[in-house]
Every structure is written in C-alpha cells, then in structure tokens.
Amino acid sequence: MLEAISITQARADFLPLIESVGGELRQFMVTKHGRP
Q1: pTM above 0.90?
Q2: Phi then psi for 34, rounded to 5 degrees?
Q3: Which of 8, 25, 26, 32 has a Cα-to-Cα distance from 15 of 20 to 30 A?
Q4: Distance CA 21, CA 15 (A)
Q5: Which ranges constitute the DSSP H helices of the chain?
Q6: DSSP 8-state code for residue 35
Q7: For residue 15, pLDDT beyond 80
Q8: CA-to-CA distance for 26 and 21, rounded, in angstroms?
Q9: C-alpha 2: how far from its chain's center?
Q10: What CA–CA distance (Å, rounded) separates 34 from 36?
Q11: Domain ranges in the chain?
C-alpha cells in the first residue's frame, strides 16, 4: 500500500512538472522556428 501511495504522490508531483517543461519547450520551438 505504501508503494502505491508514494507512486500516486510522485505522479501528482511529476505531472505538473512535465506540463510546465512541455509548455516551455513548445514556446521555445514556436519562438525559434516561427509560427506555423
């Protein structure tokens, strides 16, 4: 049970980080290559 809880907590902490990095990367690509 502890492992499942820690995995869920880690995922809850990790997803916003992924979305933040993804948003910055998308912004960088748009800035670098111009808008499609």
Answers
A1: no
A2: 80, 165
A3: 32
A4: 10
A5: 2-33
A6: -
A7: yes
A8: 9
A9: 24
A10: 6
A11: 1-35
